[in-house]
Amino acid sequence: MPWTFTYYGYGIGVFPPDKANFDQFLKAAHTVNPAQGEAFRAIKAASSKATVGSAYGMAPAYPKTDSEVDRATTARYHAMNNIYFLHTAMHGQYPKAFVGETPYEATGFKPGGIPAKGNLRLSWRSSVLQCTVQTLSEKLAQSCPILGRPLRSRSG
């Protein structure tokens, strides 16, 4: 799962290479996004009937209140934590995950660095997006202050 090794390895440093720098996470993510596109095209070039996809860990989030600020924050959380890699693979552009514009300079973005929209057609069984929902172990949640608190559920 691209989010797991890039964010945990470069963003918060709980996986190797043990970096805790958001700009390094953005650079790692921007390295992985075009690489997924290139790998997809290479596999399809070798076998046009190949089924190609990826695994994405996702978790729901709900606004704490119905305020515009909470709804916008929740939308950015979803864009960054759930679909940052998926949206890029499917649409050739980053989702709106930041306040303001995507910090392309921090990513090391170069024009043409993300596959153009429509170039990637990931294969999904029964044309349904199947997502692997990953739950964090209690140990990881305790070791990571960002993830140490559970997300608010609809009932609470």
Question: How would you state the average pLDDT, rounded?
Answer: 74
Largest sheet: none
Oligomer: single chain
The rough form would be described as: globular
Number of domains: 1
Give the helix tally. 6
> Between the first and last Cα atoms, what is the distance in angstroms?
29 Å
Number of strands: 0
Run of helices and strands: HHHHHH
Could you characterize what this model shows?
- With 156 residues, the protein is mainly alpha-helical.
- Helices cover 43% and strands 0% of the residues.
- The protein has helices spanning 2-11, 22-46, 68-81, 84-91, 104-107, 138-143.
- The two termini are 29 Å apart.
Task: Detail the topology: elements first, then pairings.
Blueprint lengths: L1 H10 L10 H25 L21 H14 L2 H8 L12 H4 L30 H6 L13
Helix pairs in contact: 1-2
Question: What attributes characterize this protein structure?
Answer:
6 helices, 43% helix, mainly alpha, single chain, 0% strand, 156 residues
